[in-house]
């Protein structure tokens, strides 16, 4: 059954602005109609006005998205890095699920709040909260303190990544989206890479300074880095086009252009959530398939966490095999490989594959299925370490396709901001649910790196991703052949008046005709 798209409730205004490239008859065709220049970078075949608009969005939304994501994943990696660098022994730790549980509980409310609040205040608020918690982690003295701080940290951190994904889906067209999400996703990989080098430096230069261990200094440095990112966002981070008001960054014509670039959602402003929307959240098959893809990927990439434990375990076989700085440094190429593959996949998806997301999901899952099977069936401590070392470096292929299912979610559900936000939260909720339960059985820390059953389990989940991606591609192809859109126009986005929409662009004291003059580029 066809699902209704929300009706437009933000009027077209009497403002001259250029016609966007990549939109024909109210349809986003940006991934299909392009020049050779856009294969290098997508703004190079657009009008000067549209290039200027995208440049502003890139240097604000994407830049702050990268910085915030970098800090978030730096903190997450810092915990793992600190765990193998002395924190486990100092605090007598054996595991922790408080972060995952708190994250699961906070994700949906956080994402839905984003549809009703201004991100330039909401996202910095989240970052202030997690920065305070990060500083607090440097003073942990017991497992209980760590569990409490990690739970609080999860409440603030959990919605940031999906919020950035939601905002990117509100601004970028199909031929642009995967590359922007990939850039943000690279920051998620750069965080752990930087964490390893940072911990190596902290362990060498700061361990014992002022009575603090190297892992404690790691959290202090992390908090200091976080502070520098927060303040500029209060002035520069853009709202979604349907709510954005003219300011020193974006003019009224640019806002109209931004809305026209998103034919399904550019003029849909979310009001109160409706029962129709809530029902749609739980009854749309595409959403459940996307959730399963995300959850499968979150288990499938777990073998890459074994690499640090593998190096540390060699010290039990032959004392002094690897120092703490070496363990931290030797794992970093894993993230470099993932960043490289992420970049290639995103460019290929947006260009060669004309916006199709399923090929890269299947490619990444296939490579990692083979890698996981080899990790499970070959000796954990072979005489020649090179082959297993190489296998660990290849465990990031599936994770590199992460931006594919985020782009797919934004594209399939475009036209309904609340459903898009809810589905984005669900991607992380189900990922966290799987991550908080399945590893307890097959990826226990005490068993690392000899997690043979875990590697087989990860391989099984990569098969699930292949099946889900193929099924979803078939469903969407069948709908397209029958001329059925996921969200043809119908219901409203809740009570938002036309006066509110006009005020959103011109302020409360200015009245304009509800029409728009579109100029050819």
TrEMBL record:
It is found in: Membrane. Its main location: membrane. Keywords: Membrane, Transmembrane, Transmembrane helix, Transport. The keyword Nucleotide-binding does not apply. The chain crosses the membrane at residues 146-169, 181-203, 215-237, 330-348, 360-381, 456-476. It is a multi-pass membrane protein. Pfam families: MFS_1 (PF07690). Gene3D superfamilies: MFS general substrate transporter like domains (1.20.1250.20). One of its GO terms (cellular component) is membrane. One of its GO terms (molecular function) is transmembrane transporter activity. It comes from the Eukaryota. InterPro entries: MFS (IPR011701), MFS_trans_sf (IPR036259). The keyword Transport applies. Belongs to the major facilitator superfamily. Allantoate permease family. This is MFS general substrate transporter.
């Amino acid at each position: 059954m066809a699902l209704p798209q929300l009706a437009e409730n933000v009027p077209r205004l009497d403002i001259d602005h250029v016609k966007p490239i990549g939109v024909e008859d109210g349809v986003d065709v940006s991934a299909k109609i392009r020049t050779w220049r856009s294969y290098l970078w997508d703004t190079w075949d657009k009008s000067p006005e549209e290039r200027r608009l995208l440049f502003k969005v890139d240097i604000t939304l994407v830049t702050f998205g990268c910085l915030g994501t970098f800090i978030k994943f730096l903190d997450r990696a810092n915990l793992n890095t600190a765990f193998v660098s002395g924190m486990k022994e100092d605090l007598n730790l054996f595991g922790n699920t408080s972060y995952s549980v708190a994250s699961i509980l906070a994700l949906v409310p956080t994402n839905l709040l984003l549809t009703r609040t201004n991100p330039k205040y909401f996202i910095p608020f989240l970052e202030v909260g997690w920065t305070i918690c990060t500083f607090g982690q440097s003073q942990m003295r017991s497992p209980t303190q760590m569990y409490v701080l990690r739970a609080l940290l999860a409440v603030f951190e959990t919605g940031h990544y999906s919020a950035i994904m939601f905002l990117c889906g509100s601004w970028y067209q199909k031929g642009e989206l995967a590359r922007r999400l990939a850039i943000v996703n690279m920051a998620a990989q750069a965080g752990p890479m930087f964490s390893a080098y940072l911990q190596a430096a902290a362990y060498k230069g700061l361990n014992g300074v002022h009575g603090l261990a190297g892992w404690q200094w790691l959290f202090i440095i992390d908090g200091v880095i976080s502070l520098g990112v927060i303040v500029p966002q209060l002035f520069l981070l853009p709202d979604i086009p349907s709510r954005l008001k003219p300011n020193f960054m974006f003019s009224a014509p640019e806002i109209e252009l931004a809305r026209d670039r998103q034919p399904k959602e550019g003029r849909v402003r979310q009001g109160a959530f409706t029962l129709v929307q809530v029902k749609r959240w739980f009854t749309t098959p595409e959403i459940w398939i996307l959730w399963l893809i995300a959850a499968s990927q979150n288990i499938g990439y777990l073998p890459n966490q074994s690499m640090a434990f593998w190096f540390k375990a060699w010290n039990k076989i032959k004392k002094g095999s690897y120092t703490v700085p070496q363990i931290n440094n030797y794992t970093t190429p894993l993230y470099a490989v993932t960043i490289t593959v992420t970049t290639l996949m995103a460019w290929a998806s947006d260009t060669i594959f004309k916006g199709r997301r399923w090929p890269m999901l299947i490619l990444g899952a296939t490579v990692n299925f083979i890698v996981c099977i080899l990790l499970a069936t070959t000796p954990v401590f072979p005489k020649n370490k090179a082959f297993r070392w190489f296998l660990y470096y290849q465990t990031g292929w599936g994770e590199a396709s992460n931006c594919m299912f985020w782009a797919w979610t934004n594209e399939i559900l475009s036209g309904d901001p609340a459903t898009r936000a809810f589905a984005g939260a669900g991607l992380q909720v189900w990922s966290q649910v799987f991550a908080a339960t399945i590893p307890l059985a097959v990826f226990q820390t005490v068993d690392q790196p000899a997690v043979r059953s875990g590697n087989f389990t990860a391989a099984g989940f990569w098969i699930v991703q292949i099946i889900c991606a193929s099924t979803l591609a078939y469903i969407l192809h069948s709908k397209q052949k029958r001329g059925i859109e996921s969200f043809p126009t119908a219901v409203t986005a809740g009570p938002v008046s036309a006066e509110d929409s006009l005020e959103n662009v011109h302020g409360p004291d200015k009245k304009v005709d509800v029409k728009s003059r579109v100029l050819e580029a």
